[in-house]
Amino acid sequence: MGHLRSADIETMPIKRMANTGALKPAWTFGSRAATRAATPFSYISEAILKLFPLYLLATCAFAGQSIQFGPNFIYNSNAIPNSPTNRMEFYIHDWSTTGVTHIVNSGATGWLGYIQEISPTNIILLLYNKWETGGQLAEIEIGALAPRAVYVRCQHDPVNKLDLIEAWDITGNLIYSNSLAYVSETDTGTTFQMGYGGEPTASLAFMRVHSNLVPLNSRPPVTSDNNNRIFEWKFDGDLSDASGNGHKAGLYGGAPAYVPTPYQNTIAVVKTAGANSWTNVVTQRAGYPAMMDGTASYSQADGSSAVTCSWASAGGPSALIWDNTSSCTPVIQGLIFGDYTVSLTVTSAADGTTATASTEFGAVAMDDNGVVVNADPNVDAIFGPMIAYGKNPWGFADYWTLHAMNLRVQNAYPGWGLNTSPQWENVGSGTVTYYWNVIGGPRGPNATAPPGTALSSGISQTARALTVKDASQLDLSELPTRVLLLTSFSNVEEIRICSASGNTLTVCYDGRGQNAQSWNTGALVLQDKVKGSGTRFLTDASAPVCPLGAPGPPGPASYSAGSVGLTAGSTTMTGVGTNWSPATGAVPNYFVRVSATHGGVPFQFIAQIASVQPGAITLNRPYPADADSRTYSSYAIMPASRTVVLRYNDLYNTTTPPRPLK
Fold first, then answer.
1. What is the domain range of residue 627?
2. Is the same domain home to 85 and 230?
């Protein structure tokens, strides 16, 4: 998933601490916008498209211990100094795949985090800093990790008003990295707690807080790191503070249960000189010396994280000359244009275990500014100046170039991958005709149909019938149908019509639900209608428009578990057996579709979400005052963001070829 914009969140779950009466308050974020500047074309060598180093892992001969928590909770036995600048690191493993387990709730650092189960394979680690106003939530998807284990680093930078949050799997792969801005903060508290009690079990190998920060894409958290510690709980058979600062942990809810810490591996990490916060490898300059970097390699042994390095060439257009293959930062020479492969073997200083990684990087001729020097000047004439990957002064451009390439390789966007067809090529059944440009009849050089009609008298916000000047100007051959009332394209109301008699159109029950308003005489009454022949807009196997049925928003449901309670005249929708949050698919501005009744007569109640809590949703409009107050089991929360692309022929303008209508 990545992180949520602050505007997407209103409140998060609250949880009462067992037997303490303490209540975690709901929290609110402000809104935020982001901009991106246009950037020059970035050159990426062929080798950069293959940045998938192979890690050969060696399991440590010995391991430390971890503590189990969740049914009980761990807390600080004395005050921990309030630390505005802080770096929190921990290693958690073997979490339950059900429910919610709180990992941290700290006044001393501001951090609050918990694991939330969406489904057994969809589990999210959520982290944010509760000191902040206008902060942002980090959502780290950990449900697909096998084994269930993750290293996490959370850094709070009050000088730059940033939270730096990263996570790694046990092989050292960076699975999440983000820099999240906030507006302001109020630093209060001296507490540090893990778990709330009465929650599913998880195991924690270590939890520590440092007083200094490190750059993004630094070495992952390691088991042994004695630098600048405020406190460290290692849980090797006791609750002592390994930093020596005297901040011993306590346990509430039973005796401590310790288990062996798994997957304490030795990891080899290969980088090139000039690597930054979002990549380990950048293009090198042909004809010039370059430096390789193995200093991000490490051992997770309890005794020491130190490793020794040994390098070797594994392929390329020329033989590399190494100044010292035993250095962790060797210099190489002899680069010419092309792709090179190097390997690094590291050995743990603590237990002698080894690991090997290899990677590819490219070399290209460039000037001092990183602008590519082409042998053929015609290339510059065709493409213009190109900049080597990693040399763009706007690094964000290189980042998005790499990110977009990786997504296409992985086919992360269905229909947009390198090996799949565009989504609009999933052709639906049948053929369609249409009314163009939101007009009651088609317009164009060959158009002959009438242009819609207008109100012959004004209507109120609650009117259930409207009289038009000439109903023959509308297509009322099938009912129910929809018409649009508008005075401009920025002021439109869609109304569902269930019957017509002469020029009088009768509105369906709750057919003016979304943005009902008063309209004056002369307001336009138009249609934006697509008619199908042999189509299956609801049930098409490859391209259903409304797979949940009509009437209703387009597209599938994002959440439909449990049942909902609606009360006549109320904007509150309560949940039974629900766990609503943006992380589970209940997002402000999404739509809610409920198969409800009024006087026992079925109808579809449709509204938008204004705000979300785990057991209650506030809607943008009230449930009708005369509808039945009861619990309904058939409902869906829907993004309603499906793009409908209809391949069509303009029946009224035969001079143009078929084209897509979105």
1. 563-638
2. yes
